[in-house]
Amino acid sequence: MTVDSSAARKPRRSAAGKAGTTGSNTGTTGDPTGTTGTKRAARGSRAAARKGTEPELVQLLTPEGKRVKNAEYDAYVAGITPDELRGLYRDMVLTRRFDAEATALQRQGELGLWASLLGQEAAQIGSGRATREDDYVFPTYREHGVAWCRGVDPTNLLGMFRGVNNGGWDPNGNNFHLYTIVIGSQTLHATGYAMGITKDGADSAVIAYFGDGASSQGDVAESFTFSAVYNAPVVFFCQNNQWAISEPTEKQSRVPLYQRAQGFGFPGVRVDGNDVLACLAVTKWALERARAGEGPTLVEAFTYRMGAHTTSDDPSRYRGDEERAAWEAKDPILRLRRYLEASNHADEGFFAELEEESEALGRRVREAVRAMPDPDRFAIFENVYADGHALVDEERAQFAAYQASFADAEGGH
Ligand SMILES: Cc1ncc(C[n+]2csc(CCOP(=O)(O)OP(=O)(O)O)c2C)c(N)n1
Ligand SMILES: [Mg+2]
Matching NCBIfam families, A to Z (predicted)? Predict the structure, then answer.
Protein backbone atom coordinates (compact mmCIF):
# COMPACT_ATOMS: atom_id res chain seq x y z
CA MET A 1 0.00 0.00 0.00
CA THR A 2 1.40 3.41 -0.90
CA VAL A 3 1.45 6.18 1.65
CA ASP A 4 1.42 9.86 0.82
CA SER A 5 4.92 11.21 1.42
CA SER A 6 3.57 14.79 1.35
CA ALA A 7 2.01 14.09 4.74
CA ALA A 8 5.48 14.30 6.27
CA ARG A 9 5.75 17.96 5.17
CA LYS A 10 2.42 18.90 6.73
CA PRO A 11 2.30 20.48 10.17
CA ARG A 12 1.29 18.16 12.98
CA ARG A 13 -2.41 18.24 13.58
CA SER A 14 -4.04 18.95 16.89
CA ALA A 15 -5.70 16.25 18.95
CA ALA A 16 -9.06 17.41 17.59
CA GLY A 17 -8.13 16.02 14.21
CA LYS A 18 -7.87 12.37 15.24
CA ALA A 19 -9.98 10.98 12.49
CA GLY A 20 -10.65 7.43 11.58
CA THR A 21 -9.21 5.70 14.61
CA THR A 22 -11.10 5.58 17.86
CA GLY A 23 -13.37 8.14 19.51
CA SER A 24 -15.35 8.93 16.41
CA ASN A 25 -15.84 6.44 13.68
CA THR A 26 -17.03 9.00 11.16
CA GLY A 27 -14.08 8.88 8.82
CA THR A 28 -13.72 12.52 7.79
CA THR A 29 -14.03 14.29 11.15
CA GLY A 30 -11.44 16.99 11.52
CA ASP A 31 -9.13 15.84 8.76
CA PRO A 32 -9.91 17.49 5.45
CA THR A 33 -6.79 16.12 3.77
CA GLY A 34 -7.50 12.58 4.86
CA THR A 35 -3.89 11.52 4.43
CA THR A 36 -2.70 11.47 8.03
CA GLY A 37 -5.97 9.97 9.14
CA THR A 38 -5.68 7.25 6.56
CA LYS A 39 -2.17 6.32 7.70
CA ARG A 40 -3.28 6.33 11.30
CA ALA A 41 -6.35 4.32 10.40
CA ALA A 42 -4.22 1.78 8.59
CA ARG A 43 -1.86 1.51 11.57
CA GLY A 44 -4.85 1.36 13.91
CA SER A 45 -6.59 -1.34 11.98
CA ARG A 46 -3.44 -3.45 11.65
CA ALA A 47 -2.93 -3.14 15.38
CA ALA A 48 -6.60 -3.97 15.93
CA ALA A 49 -6.32 -6.97 13.67
CA ARG A 50 -3.23 -8.19 15.58
CA LYS A 51 -5.09 -7.90 18.86
CA GLY A 52 -8.14 -9.55 17.32
CA THR A 53 -10.28 -6.48 17.95
CA GLU A 54 -12.11 -4.34 15.45
CA PRO A 55 -12.60 -0.54 15.39
CA GLU A 56 -15.52 0.88 17.27
CA LEU A 57 -18.98 0.59 15.72
CA VAL A 58 -22.25 2.36 16.33
CA GLN A 59 -24.41 0.16 18.56
CA LEU A 60 -27.69 0.99 20.29
CA LEU A 61 -28.67 -2.54 21.31
CA THR A 62 -26.12 -4.98 22.70
CA PRO A 63 -26.31 -8.68 21.79
CA GLU A 64 -27.91 -9.19 25.23
CA GLY A 65 -30.67 -6.77 24.24
CA LYS A 66 -29.58 -3.88 26.44
CA ARG A 67 -30.22 -0.39 25.10
CA VAL A 68 -27.04 1.69 25.21
CA LYS A 69 -26.89 5.46 24.87
CA ASN A 70 -25.27 7.10 21.88
CA ALA A 71 -24.92 10.88 21.86
CA GLU A 72 -24.78 11.15 18.07
CA TYR A 73 -27.47 8.73 16.93
CA ASP A 74 -30.05 8.41 19.75
CA ALA A 75 -31.97 11.35 18.34
CA TYR A 76 -32.77 9.40 15.17
CA VAL A 77 -34.73 6.73 17.08
CA ALA A 78 -35.83 8.86 20.03
CA GLY A 79 -39.50 8.92 19.08
CA ILE A 80 -39.81 5.22 18.27
CA THR A 81 -42.96 3.66 19.76
CA PRO A 82 -43.38 0.12 21.17
CA ASP A 83 -45.62 -0.58 18.19
CA GLU A 84 -42.85 0.42 15.78
CA LEU A 85 -40.34 -1.71 17.69
CA ARG A 86 -42.65 -4.71 17.40
CA GLY A 87 -42.98 -3.82 13.71
CA LEU A 88 -39.21 -4.04 13.22
CA TYR A 89 -39.21 -7.41 14.99
CA ARG A 90 -42.08 -8.65 12.82
CA ASP A 91 -40.28 -7.51 9.65
CA MET A 92 -37.16 -9.43 10.62
CA VAL A 93 -39.01 -12.61 11.61
CA LEU A 94 -41.13 -12.69 8.46
CA THR A 95 -38.14 -11.95 6.26
CA ARG A 96 -36.19 -14.81 7.84
CA ARG A 97 -39.17 -17.13 7.41
CA PHE A 98 -39.55 -16.17 3.76
CA ASP A 99 -35.84 -16.70 3.20
CA ALA A 100 -35.95 -20.16 4.81
CA GLU A 101 -38.88 -21.10 2.58
CA ALA A 102 -37.02 -19.96 -0.52
CA THR A 103 -33.97 -22.02 0.46
CA ALA A 104 -36.22 -25.08 0.95
CA LEU A 105 -37.92 -24.47 -2.40
CA GLN A 106 -34.54 -24.44 -4.11
CA ARG A 107 -33.62 -27.74 -2.44
CA GLN A 108 -36.91 -29.19 -3.66
CA GLY A 109 -36.12 -28.20 -7.24
CA GLU A 110 -38.68 -25.38 -7.41
CA LEU A 111 -36.04 -22.61 -7.78
CA GLY A 112 -32.84 -22.69 -9.79
CA LEU A 113 -30.86 -20.78 -7.16
CA TRP A 114 -31.33 -18.78 -3.97
CA ALA A 115 -29.10 -16.23 -2.22
CA SER A 116 -30.00 -16.31 1.46
CA LEU A 117 -29.96 -13.21 3.69
CA LEU A 118 -29.78 -15.24 6.91
CA GLY A 119 -28.03 -13.11 9.56
CA GLN A 120 -28.42 -9.83 7.67
CA GLU A 121 -32.03 -9.09 8.67
CA ALA A 122 -31.20 -6.14 10.95
CA ALA A 123 -28.97 -4.43 8.39
CA GLN A 124 -31.70 -4.70 5.77
CA ILE A 125 -34.79 -3.96 7.85
CA GLY A 126 -33.13 -1.11 9.75
CA SER A 127 -31.87 0.60 6.61
CA GLY A 128 -34.97 -0.26 4.57
CA ARG A 129 -37.31 1.24 7.17
CA ALA A 130 -35.20 4.41 7.19
CA THR A 131 -36.09 5.13 3.56
CA ARG A 132 -38.93 7.40 2.51
CA GLU A 133 -41.49 6.40 -0.13
CA ASP A 134 -40.00 8.77 -2.72
CA ASP A 135 -36.43 7.57 -2.15
CA TYR A 136 -35.00 5.14 -4.68
CA VAL A 137 -33.31 1.87 -3.77
CA PHE A 138 -30.71 0.01 -5.84
CA PRO A 139 -30.22 -3.51 -4.43
CA THR A 140 -27.86 -6.40 -5.17
CA TYR A 141 -29.39 -9.90 -5.32
CA ARG A 142 -29.68 -10.48 -1.55
CA GLU A 143 -31.82 -7.55 -0.38
CA HIS A 144 -35.01 -9.51 0.33
CA GLY A 145 -35.50 -7.62 3.62
CA VAL A 146 -35.22 -4.25 1.91
CA ALA A 147 -37.65 -5.40 -0.77
CA TRP A 148 -40.06 -6.33 2.03
CA CYS A 149 -39.77 -2.83 3.52
CA ARG A 150 -40.41 -1.26 0.13
CA GLY A 151 -43.63 -3.27 -0.28
CA VAL A 152 -42.44 -5.61 -3.05
CA ASP A 153 -44.44 -8.83 -2.70
CA PRO A 154 -42.01 -11.60 -1.66
CA THR A 155 -43.39 -13.97 -4.27
CA ASN A 156 -42.27 -11.50 -6.95
CA LEU A 157 -38.67 -11.97 -5.83
CA LEU A 158 -38.86 -15.66 -6.66
CA GLY A 159 -39.82 -15.53 -10.33
CA MET A 160 -36.31 -14.70 -11.48
CA PHE A 161 -34.80 -17.39 -9.26
CA ARG A 162 -37.26 -19.87 -10.80
CA GLY A 163 -36.30 -18.65 -14.25
CA VAL A 164 -39.82 -17.69 -15.30
CA ASN A 165 -39.33 -13.96 -15.73
CA ASN A 166 -36.63 -11.38 -16.34
CA GLY A 167 -36.87 -9.57 -13.04
CA GLY A 168 -40.27 -9.91 -11.49
CA TRP A 169 -41.45 -6.45 -10.56
CA ASP A 170 -41.84 -2.95 -11.90
CA PRO A 171 -38.94 -0.97 -10.36
CA ASN A 172 -40.97 2.23 -10.43
CA GLY A 173 -43.87 0.61 -8.56
CA ASN A 174 -41.98 0.77 -5.27
CA ASN A 175 -38.85 2.72 -6.23
CA PHE A 176 -36.96 -0.53 -5.81
CA HIS A 177 -34.72 -1.36 -8.74
CA LEU A 178 -34.41 -4.88 -10.12
CA TYR A 179 -31.88 -7.20 -8.49
CA THR A 180 -28.41 -6.69 -9.92
CA ILE A 181 -25.97 -9.57 -10.25
CA VAL A 182 -23.11 -7.69 -11.91
CA ILE A 183 -21.20 -6.91 -8.74
CA GLY A 184 -21.07 -3.21 -7.86
CA SER A 185 -22.64 -1.92 -11.07
CA GLN A 186 -25.77 -0.72 -9.28
CA THR A 187 -23.71 1.85 -7.37
CA LEU A 188 -23.15 3.63 -10.69
CA HIS A 189 -26.86 3.49 -11.52
CA ALA A 190 -27.61 4.86 -8.06
CA THR A 191 -25.12 7.70 -8.46
CA GLY A 192 -26.52 8.67 -11.84
CA TYR A 193 -30.05 8.58 -10.46
CA ALA A 194 -28.99 10.71 -7.48
CA MET A 195 -27.35 13.26 -9.80
CA GLY A 196 -30.68 13.39 -11.66
CA ILE A 197 -32.55 14.11 -8.42
CA THR A 198 -30.30 17.13 -7.89
CA LYS A 199 -30.98 18.36 -11.41
CA ASP A 200 -34.73 17.99 -10.77
CA GLY A 201 -34.39 20.04 -7.61
CA ALA A 202 -36.13 17.28 -5.60
CA ASP A 203 -35.29 16.42 -1.99
CA SER A 204 -35.49 12.63 -2.21
CA ALA A 205 -32.44 10.44 -1.77
CA VAL A 206 -30.97 7.22 -3.14
CA ILE A 207 -29.57 4.24 -1.32
CA ALA A 208 -27.28 1.73 -3.02
CA TYR A 209 -26.64 -1.67 -1.46
CA PHE A 210 -23.46 -3.61 -2.10
CA GLY A 211 -21.17 -6.09 -0.39
CA ASP A 212 -17.67 -6.15 1.06
CA GLY A 213 -16.46 -7.94 -2.07
CA ALA A 214 -18.09 -5.36 -4.31
CA SER A 215 -16.13 -2.64 -2.55
CA SER A 216 -13.09 -3.74 -4.59
CA GLN A 217 -14.82 -3.11 -7.90
CA GLY A 218 -13.82 -0.17 -10.06
CA ASP A 219 -17.50 0.69 -10.50
CA VAL A 220 -17.77 1.37 -6.77
CA ALA A 221 -14.69 3.60 -6.75
CA GLU A 222 -16.05 5.55 -9.73
CA SER A 223 -19.39 5.95 -7.97
CA PHE A 224 -17.61 7.32 -4.93
CA THR A 225 -15.70 9.83 -7.06
CA PHE A 226 -18.71 11.04 -9.03
CA SER A 227 -21.08 11.23 -6.08
CA ALA A 228 -18.52 13.15 -4.03
CA VAL A 229 -17.65 15.63 -6.77
CA TYR A 230 -21.28 16.20 -7.76
CA ASN A 231 -22.45 16.13 -4.13
CA ALA A 232 -25.04 13.55 -5.11
CA PRO A 233 -27.74 12.60 -2.57
CA VAL A 234 -26.77 8.94 -2.25
CA VAL A 235 -26.13 6.61 0.66
CA PHE A 236 -23.74 3.76 -0.06
CA PHE A 237 -24.87 0.95 2.22
CA CYS A 238 -22.19 -1.73 2.33
CA GLN A 239 -23.20 -4.93 4.09
CA ASN A 240 -19.88 -6.29 5.22
CA ASN A 241 -20.99 -9.87 5.79
CA GLN A 242 -17.31 -10.89 6.11
CA TRP A 243 -17.25 -12.98 2.93
CA ALA A 244 -17.33 -12.54 -0.83
CA ILE A 245 -18.16 -16.16 -1.67
CA SER A 246 -14.95 -17.80 -0.34
CA GLU A 247 -12.84 -14.62 0.00
CA PRO A 248 -12.70 -13.04 3.46
CA THR A 249 -12.92 -9.26 3.91
CA GLU A 250 -9.20 -9.02 4.76
CA LYS A 251 -8.56 -9.78 1.09
CA GLN A 252 -10.56 -6.71 0.01
CA SER A 253 -8.98 -3.92 2.02
CA ARG A 254 -6.06 -2.92 4.24
CA VAL A 255 -8.27 -0.49 6.12
CA PRO A 256 -11.76 -1.00 7.58
CA LEU A 257 -14.16 -0.49 4.70
CA TYR A 258 -15.95 2.58 6.12
CA GLN A 259 -12.63 4.44 6.09
CA ARG A 260 -12.48 4.21 2.31
CA ALA A 261 -14.90 7.15 2.17
CA GLN A 262 -12.30 9.42 3.70
CA GLY A 263 -10.11 9.33 0.62
CA PHE A 264 -13.06 10.41 -1.53
CA GLY A 265 -13.98 13.28 0.78
CA PHE A 266 -17.21 12.13 2.42
CA PRO A 267 -18.02 10.52 5.75
CA GLY A 268 -17.96 6.82 6.43
CA VAL A 269 -19.53 5.13 9.46
CA ARG A 270 -19.35 1.59 10.73
CA VAL A 271 -22.57 0.41 12.34
CA ASP A 272 -23.38 -2.84 14.10
CA GLY A 273 -25.18 -4.55 11.24
CA ASN A 274 -26.92 -6.97 13.62
CA ASP A 275 -28.51 -4.13 15.56
CA VAL A 276 -31.69 -3.04 13.82
CA LEU A 277 -32.04 0.15 15.86
CA ALA A 278 -28.51 1.30 15.10
CA CYS A 279 -28.96 0.53 11.41
CA LEU A 280 -32.22 2.50 11.39
CA ALA A 281 -30.64 5.49 13.16
CA VAL A 282 -27.45 5.66 11.11
CA THR A 283 -29.26 5.24 7.79
CA LYS A 284 -31.78 7.95 8.74
CA TRP A 285 -28.88 10.25 9.54
CA ALA A 286 -27.18 9.50 6.23
CA LEU A 287 -30.39 9.95 4.22
CA GLU A 288 -31.06 13.25 5.95
CA ARG A 289 -27.56 14.43 5.04
CA ALA A 290 -28.32 13.54 1.44
CA ARG A 291 -31.65 15.39 1.47
CA ALA A 292 -30.03 18.45 3.02
CA GLY A 293 -27.56 18.68 0.12
CA GLU A 294 -24.59 17.44 2.13
CA GLY A 295 -23.73 14.72 -0.37
CA PRO A 296 -22.92 11.03 -0.10
CA THR A 297 -22.25 8.86 2.95
CA LEU A 298 -20.76 5.40 3.22
CA VAL A 299 -22.40 3.19 5.83
CA GLU A 300 -20.61 -0.08 6.56
CA ALA A 301 -22.99 -2.46 8.28
CA PHE A 302 -20.78 -4.95 10.07
CA THR A 303 -22.65 -8.23 9.92
CA TYR A 304 -22.31 -11.88 8.97
CA ARG A 305 -23.59 -14.15 6.25
CA MET A 306 -24.80 -17.07 8.36
CA GLY A 307 -25.59 -19.30 5.42
CA ALA A 308 -23.91 -20.23 2.17
CA HIS A 309 -23.18 -17.59 -0.47
CA THR A 310 -25.96 -19.13 -2.53
CA THR A 311 -27.50 -22.59 -2.66
CA SER A 312 -24.68 -23.50 -5.10
CA ASP A 313 -22.02 -22.87 -2.46
CA ASP A 314 -20.60 -25.05 0.32
CA PRO A 315 -19.04 -22.78 2.98
CA SER A 316 -17.56 -25.73 4.91
CA ARG A 317 -14.87 -25.74 2.20
CA TYR A 318 -13.44 -22.42 3.36
CA ARG A 319 -14.62 -21.53 6.88
CA GLY A 320 -15.09 -23.21 10.23
CA ASP A 321 -18.18 -23.70 12.41
CA GLU A 322 -16.67 -21.70 15.31
CA GLU A 323 -17.00 -18.51 13.31
CA ARG A 324 -20.70 -19.02 12.73
CA ALA A 325 -21.22 -19.94 16.39
CA ALA A 326 -19.61 -16.65 17.48
CA TRP A 327 -21.97 -14.70 15.24
CA GLU A 328 -25.01 -16.71 16.34
CA ALA A 329 -24.51 -15.16 19.77
CA LYS A 330 -25.00 -11.77 18.10
CA ASP A 331 -28.20 -12.78 16.29
CA PRO A 332 -30.18 -9.70 15.20
CA ILE A 333 -33.62 -11.15 15.93
CA LEU A 334 -32.76 -12.59 19.32
CA ARG A 335 -31.35 -9.31 20.63
CA LEU A 336 -34.47 -7.33 19.74
CA ARG A 337 -36.64 -10.04 21.27
CA ARG A 338 -34.65 -9.77 24.51
CA TYR A 339 -35.10 -6.01 24.50
CA LEU A 340 -38.86 -6.25 23.79
CA GLU A 341 -39.30 -8.76 26.61
CA ALA A 342 -37.17 -6.91 29.13
CA SER A 343 -38.97 -3.63 28.46
CA ASN A 344 -42.44 -5.28 28.47
CA HIS A 345 -43.11 -4.10 24.94
CA ALA A 346 -44.29 -7.53 23.75
CA ASP A 347 -46.05 -10.44 25.40
CA GLU A 348 -46.37 -14.15 24.64
CA GLY A 349 -49.50 -13.50 22.60
CA PHE A 350 -47.55 -11.26 20.20
CA PHE A 351 -44.84 -13.87 19.62
CA ALA A 352 -47.38 -16.69 19.18
CA GLU A 353 -49.41 -14.70 16.66
CA LEU A 354 -46.26 -13.84 14.73
CA GLU A 355 -45.33 -17.51 14.60
CA GLU A 356 -48.67 -18.25 12.95
CA GLU A 357 -48.26 -15.35 10.54
CA SER A 358 -44.80 -16.69 9.60
CA GLU A 359 -46.17 -20.13 8.81
CA ALA A 360 -48.95 -18.60 6.74
CA LEU A 361 -46.37 -16.59 4.77
CA GLY A 362 -44.32 -19.75 4.16
CA ARG A 363 -47.40 -21.53 2.81
CA ARG A 364 -48.41 -18.58 0.63
CA VAL A 365 -44.95 -18.33 -0.92
CA ARG A 366 -44.72 -22.08 -1.54
CA GLU A 367 -48.11 -22.22 -3.22
CA ALA A 368 -47.42 -19.12 -5.31
CA VAL A 369 -44.11 -20.46 -6.60
CA ARG A 370 -45.55 -23.82 -7.56
CA ALA A 371 -48.36 -22.09 -9.41
CA MET A 372 -46.07 -19.84 -11.49
CA PRO A 373 -46.67 -20.62 -15.15
CA ASP A 374 -43.71 -21.45 -17.34
CA PRO A 375 -43.07 -18.70 -19.87
CA ASP A 376 -43.43 -19.29 -23.57
CA ARG A 377 -40.09 -20.77 -24.70
CA PHE A 378 -39.71 -18.17 -27.38
CA ALA A 379 -40.38 -15.22 -25.09
CA ILE A 380 -36.65 -14.88 -24.47
CA PHE A 381 -36.24 -13.51 -28.00
CA GLU A 382 -38.83 -10.79 -27.43
CA ASN A 383 -38.14 -7.27 -26.14
CA VAL A 384 -34.46 -7.28 -27.16
CA TYR A 385 -34.95 -4.88 -30.08
CA ALA A 386 -38.05 -2.83 -30.75
CA ASP A 387 -38.06 -3.61 -34.50
CA GLY A 388 -36.45 -7.02 -34.69
CA HIS A 389 -32.87 -7.87 -35.56
CA ALA A 390 -31.26 -10.26 -38.04
CA LEU A 391 -29.10 -12.01 -35.45
CA VAL A 392 -31.99 -12.48 -33.01
CA ASP A 393 -34.12 -13.82 -35.89
CA GLU A 394 -31.38 -16.31 -36.74
CA GLU A 395 -31.03 -17.43 -33.13
CA ARG A 396 -34.81 -17.84 -32.84
CA ALA A 397 -34.79 -20.05 -35.94
CA GLN A 398 -31.90 -22.13 -34.54
CA PHE A 399 -33.74 -22.57 -31.27
CA ALA A 400 -36.92 -23.58 -33.10
CA ALA A 401 -34.96 -26.22 -35.01
CA TYR A 402 -33.41 -27.49 -31.80
CA GLN A 403 -36.83 -27.77 -30.16
CA ALA A 404 -38.19 -29.54 -33.22
CA SER A 405 -35.38 -32.13 -33.02
CA PHE A 406 -36.96 -33.46 -29.80
CA ALA A 407 -40.28 -33.90 -31.55
CA ASP A 408 -38.51 -35.94 -34.30
CA ALA A 409 -36.76 -38.12 -31.72
CA GLU A 410 -40.03 -38.77 -29.93
CA GLY A 411 -41.80 -39.54 -33.21
CA GLY A 412 -39.00 -41.91 -34.28
CA HIS A 413 -39.34 -44.25 -31.32
C1 LIG B 1 -18.59 -8.14 -12.04
C2 LIG B 1 -18.78 -9.47 -11.37
N3 LIG B 1 -17.68 -10.19 -11.02
C4 LIG B 1 -17.83 -11.39 -10.41
C5 LIG B 1 -19.09 -11.90 -10.16
C6 LIG B 1 -19.25 -13.23 -9.45
N7 LIG B 1 -19.72 -13.02 -8.07
C8 LIG B 1 -21.01 -13.18 -7.73
S9 LIG B 1 -21.29 -12.86 -6.11
C10 LIG B 1 -19.67 -12.50 -5.84
C11 LIG B 1 -19.19 -12.11 -4.47
C12 LIG B 1 -19.79 -10.84 -3.97
O13 LIG B 1 -19.45 -10.64 -2.63
P14 LIG B 1 -19.97 -9.40 -1.82
O15 LIG B 1 -19.86 -8.18 -2.64
O16 LIG B 1 -19.28 -9.41 -0.52
O17 LIG B 1 -21.54 -9.68 -1.62
P18 LIG B 1 -22.25 -10.88 -0.84
O19 LIG B 1 -22.50 -11.97 -1.85
O20 LIG B 1 -21.36 -11.30 0.27
O21 LIG B 1 -23.55 -10.34 -0.36
C22 LIG B 1 -18.92 -12.65 -7.01
C23 LIG B 1 -17.47 -12.44 -7.10
C24 LIG B 1 -20.20 -11.13 -10.57
N25 LIG B 1 -21.46 -11.53 -10.36
N26 LIG B 1 -20.02 -9.91 -11.16
MG1 LIG C 1 -19.93 -10.16 1.30
Answer: PDH_E1_alph_x
Other C-beta atoms closer than 10 Å to the C-beta of 205 total 26
How confident is the model over 287-312, as a mean pLDDT? 98
Q: Calculate how far, in angstroms, residue 221's C-alpha sits from the geometric centre of ligand 1.
A: 16
Residue 47 burial (CB < 10 Å; 0-12/13-18/19+)? exposed
Is 309 known to be catalytic? yes
176 phi and psi angles, rounded to 5 deg: -130, 105
Shared domain for 285 and 408, answered yes or no, is no
How many A from CA of 377 to the centre of ligand 2?
A: 35
Of the given ranges (116-120, 332-336, 403-407), which has the lowest mean pLDDT? Answer: 403-407
Residue 297 has pLDDT above 50, yes or no: yes
Among 38-47, 101-110, 385-394, the least confident range: 38-47
Domain of 408?
Answer: 384-412
Question: Tens digits of per-residue pLDDT, 235-273?
Answer: 999 999 999 999 999 999 999 999 999 999 999 999 999
235 and 156 in a single domain? The answer is yes
Q: Which pTM was predicted?
A: 0.87
Position with higher pLDDT, 17 vs 151: 151
For ligand 1, atom 7, the nearest C-alpha belongs to 183
Atom of ligand 1 nearest to the CA of 249: 16
- Taking the CA of residue 141 as reference, the ligand 1 atom at the shortest distance is 21
Separation of alpha carbons 403 and 265, rounded Å? 56
Residue 319: give its domain's CATH number. Answer: 3.40.50.970
- Regarding whether 399 and 280 lie in a shared domain, the answer is no
Same domain assignment for residues 170 and 267: yes
Q: Domain count of the chain?
A: 2
Q: What is the mean pLDDT of residues 6-34?
A: 34
- The catalytic residue among 43, 318, 363, 389 is 318
Residue 92, CA atoms < 13 Å, CB-side half-sphere:
31
The one catalytic residue in 305, 335, 339, 366 is 305
